[in-house]
Amino acid sequence: MRYAYALATAVLLSGTAVTLAVQQPAGAQTAQNEPGAIQPAAAPRPGAPMSFADMVAKLQPAVVNISTTQRVPVSSNPFAGTPFEMFGPQQAPGGRQATRPAESLGSGFIISSDGYIVTNNHVISAGAQGAVVESIKVTLPDNREFTAKLIGRDAQSDLAVLKIEGTSLPFVKLGDSRSARVGDWVVAIGNPFGLGGSVTAGIISAVHRVTGQGGAYDRFIQTDASINRGNSGGPMFDLSGNVIGINSQILSPTGGNVGIGFAIPTEEARPIIETLMKGDSVTRGYLGIAMQDVTDDIADALGVPKGRGTLVARVEPGQAAEKAGLRQGDVIVKVGDRDVTRDQTLSYLIANVKPGTRVPLSVVRDGKTMSVTATIGTRPPEEQLAAGNFDPSDENSAPANPDTAAASIGVQVTPLTPQIARTLGLDATAKGVVIVQVDPQSDAGQKGLTRGDVIVSVNRAPVASGAEIATAIKAAKAAGRNQILLFVQRRALGRFVAIDIGS
């Protein structure tokens, strides 16, 4: 399981589960939650629940346990985690990387009689950097086990679709979360802490809850039904047996349930699931700006209403915002006819606009309101965006998967993108790789190389990846040399540095 944090409070990703109405051939079995299958008398009466037993007995067969087997890189270095730790994975005999087995557990549910399953992306993703998922196993409540195939995944919405080979499997369909109201009873089914088939109940605490994570899907159903680790991918049912949400996160100072859980509404999940089932990727709108919240003091300084708008902190060259004439310091207060508020953020509105669409934006500039029209672009992959969020002074802004190919000389690097180049005070056309971490005990560290330095060339040949550095090192060793010559740039200054490769 992975965690996100908000205001020093752990937000445990705990699951997404969705069901889709899939056309069935004549004579096929019906969904477990088909209209009429669950009689009103079997569900709690409004205001005074009697028992959920009959409803749960009907729905539980479609909720599954999902587990993965993984290989995780390990190190036997006694100084691991200290300033004396050396870079690079431990090598097993024969030059193979040393690994250990690992497992993860979560939930999901079947959405068609032929075995399509929805779960969270993080349930079937590697749980550690460098880990590889080797297999995904699905276990039904009747203890039947299947090896699942990954059909599609979408990291930003945290949704994934799996497929198992079977026929006449129990399944459920998606309901309409738009009819959900605060105070409605809900039931969650999943596998918390690996305890299969656990059922919890509660009420809807809030709808359209914004957690502050940003993006196209920061809008959840909040519930006080107990959600814990392992509930990831489990469905949230209303009292008619409809899936109205996908249990995905909890807010907790300890990692355990404290009565604040979040589920992805089916109205948000349905189009993503349908796209993934077709084998397509999800596209989202992109404006090309760095966004900053308009705090009360910023609102007062700029003369804009409190609680309205998003401040443009940076405009990316060549993107939709620049082409539309947006400037740093503008406050975008409306997208089309929809206000930008704390509950309806700019990132949510833009990401849900189809790329290529022309959208009018209402902007406050120097105290005056004006209108511009932007042709919304396509949001780049999350890995590319993460690579652009590089702060040389902030160790936590390192890319999610730094390149360790050059670890033999004590550095980890990442490709130099135009976004990172501008962050480092370089021209957007600059080439090379950026150092994201340096072993202080290495020759590179002893000679002053530091995080944020750009390696432009090795032995006077341009490099664009850690692999190219490793190739240059190998060639130098083959030629009998003990040093390689790096050209390193730090802002406007550049210098040659010879690095020892002899050891």
TrEMBL record:
NCBIfam families: degP_htrA_DO (TIGR02037)
Signal peptide: 1-21
Transmembrane parts of this sequence: none
Domain PDZ: 276-349, 410-491
PROSITE patterns given in the database record: PDZ (PS50106)
GO MF assignments: hydrolase activity
Membership in a protein family: Belongs to the peptidase S1C family.
EC number of this enzyme: 3.4.21.107
Record-linked InterPro entries: PDZ (IPR001478), PDZ_sf (IPR036034), Pept_S1C_Do (IPR011782), Peptidase_S1_PA (IPR009003), Peptidase_S1C (IPR001940)
SMART domains linked: PDZ
Catalytic class of the enzyme: hydrolase
Name listed for the protein in its UniProt record: Do family serine endopeptidase
Region (Disordered): 377-403
Sorted UniProt keywords: Hydrolase, Protease, Repeat, Serine protease, Signal
Organism: Sphingomonas rustica
Record bears the keyword Transport: no
Entry-linked Pfam families: PDZ_2, Trypsin_2
